[in-house]
Amino acid sequence: MEEVRERSMEDERELSETNSFTSAMTLNQIGVPQAPERFVLPPLERPNHTLRLNPSTTLPVIDIASLHKPSLRPWVIDEIRLACKELGFFQVINHGIPSTFINGAIDTATEFFNLPSEEKMHLASADVHKPIRYGTSMNHVADKVHFWRDFIKHYSYPISTWIHLWPSNPPSYKEKMGNYAKATQAVQKQLMEVVLESLGLKTDYLHEEIEEGSQVMAVNCYPACPEPDLALGMPPHSDYGYLTILIQSQPGLQIMDNDNNWYLIPVIEGALLVQLGDQIEVMSNGRYKSVLHRATLNNERTRISIASLHSLALEKKVGPAPELVDEEHPLAYNEGSFRDFLDHISGNDITKQRRYIDTLKKNP
Q1: From 48, 64, 69, 145, which residue has the greatest number of CB atoms within 10 Å?
Q2: For residues 331 and 325, is the Cβ–Cβ distance under 8 A?
Q3: pLDDT the model gives residue 184
Q4: In which order are the strands placed within the sheet that holds 303-311?
Q5: Concatenated DSSP letters for 326-363?
Q6: pTM of the prediction?
Q7: pLDDT tens digits for range 84-101
Q8: What is the dihedral of CA 109, 114, 119, 124, to 10 degrees?
Q9: CA distance 127 to 122
C-alpha cells in the first residue's frame, strides 16, 4: 500500500513538472514580441551572429560510394581520418538513403510539432530515462536558463521493440520516421567500420556490441525566435554516443574547432552530417575528440533537425581500445556507459556542470 502511495506521489509530481512548461512552439504561435527573460543568456554565452566561415577552411564533404571501390577505399578512409582528427565532424554524400526518406522524416516531424499542445502533452516527461518523451528546452525542470527548442526523443533500435510507443498522430509518423531510422541505422554501421579502420583497429572491433547497441532519434523543432541574438536552441555540448547522424531543414547547427572557433554548417541537399560522440573519444583514447556543437536560431522560419544518436547498449561500459594504449599514449579515460550519461544529466543543469566526457578523463 505504501509503495502504491509513493508511486502515486511520484506520478503527481511528474505531472506537475510536465505541465509546468510552455513550449517554444506555443510562444512562437502566440507571437511574443521578445524572448521571455528565462530564455535570455548571459552576455558571454550569447551566439555571435557576425559569424562567418573562414574562407581557408573547407568543411569536409565525403563521397562514401567510393568505399565500395577497392582502389579508392584507402583514399576515403584517409579523408575520414583527417576529418575525425581535425574536427570530429564531416558530411557524407552518396550514402544510399533516398531523398524521399530524408524529406519524409522532416515533413512528418514538422506535422508533429504543428499539432495542438494537448495532442503532444500525453508524451511529455522530465524523466530523461524514459524511452519516449516530448519536452522543451534541455530539461525544463532543471535548466536555469531555458533553450528555444521543443523535442521528441524515442528509442528506435531494434525498431520492432519501440515503434508502438511512437506518436500515432500524425498518422504518417511511424512509417516516415521509421523508414528514415532504419536506413540511418544501416549507414551508421558502415561509417563506424570505417572510423574504426581509420584508427588502425579491425573493422569487426566491438562488432557484437555495436550490433546490440542503441539508437535514439532526437527530433528537434526550433521555432522562429523574436530575439535570436540573445538565446540558443541548444547550448554547447557533445553527444554521449559514438556517432550522431543529423539532418537539418535549414542552417543553424554550429560546430567548434580545436581553436575554439564556431562554424555554421551549410545545408547540402541530400547530405548527412556526421558527428563524433564521447564514446569514440574514449574508445580512441583521445586520438579523436567528440565535437562540441550548438543550435542557433533565426527570427524568420522554424528549423527542424533530426539527430540519430548511436551508442553501445544502455548498460554497456566502453573504455579505450587496448591497441590504442601504449607508452606514448597512456590510458587517458575511465569506462563509461549510456546509463552513466543519463544519470549524470538527470536533474542537473547541463550548462553549469562539467561535460560528461570530462568526468571520464583521468587527467581533466
Answers
A1: 64
A2: yes
A3: 98
A4: 61-63, 89-93, 272-276, 243-248, 303-311, 214-222, 150-155, 132-136
A5: SSSS---B--B-HHHHHHHHTTS-TTTS--HHHHHBS-
A6: 0.90
A7: 999 999 999 999 999 999
A8: 60
A9: 14
